[in-house]
Write a structure and sequence with these properties.
InterPro entries: YlxR (IPR037465), YlxR-like_sf (IPR035931), YlxR_dom (IPR007393). The strands form two sheets. The chain has a four-stranded mixed sheet with strand order 5-3-4-6. A two-stranded antiparallel sheet has the order 1-2. It contains four helices and six strands. By secondary structure, the chain is an alpha+beta fold. A hairpin with a 6-residue loop joins strand 1 and strand 2.
């Protein structure tokens, strides 16, 4: 079996969920990325919404909450592929969220988990 060494930038701490940014394609901890979902679909296309609490239903795409990654994702048309939707996507809500400088998470991931008794 051949083992490949990953560069230090590709290594992330274990034990925490790791996701890939659809813009820059770098792996990062989920708490450092913004989850994006399709909020509504219509004849004009799909409207995307930021999901900082990670609770909205549906398939999610992960993105660093910076303009550079958002631009790359839009240019590469990565939202449609990641969310498995065809047609146009409206990223205006996500763009507004990123430009406003919101943190990627509104609630720590540990508090986001359901407690079962």
């Amino acid at each position: 079996m051949v083992q490949h060494e990953h560069p230090d930038s590709a290594r992330v701490p274990t034990g925490s969920p790791v996701r890939t940014c659809i813009g820059c394609r770098e792996r990062a901890l989920a708490v450092d990325l913004l989850r994006v979902v399709v909020s509504e679909s219509g004849p004009q296309g799909h409207v995307l919404a930021p999901d900082p609490r990670r609770r909205l239903p549906g398939r999610g795409a992960w993105l660093h909450p910076v303009e550079a990654c958002l631009s790359l994702a839009e240019r590469r048309r990565a939202f449609g592929r990641a969310l498995r939707v065809s047609g146009s996507v409206d990223t205006s809500e996500v763009d507004h969220w990123v430009r406003a400088g919101h943190p990627p998470r509104a609630v720590p991931l540990e508090q986001n988990r359901h407690k079962h008794s």
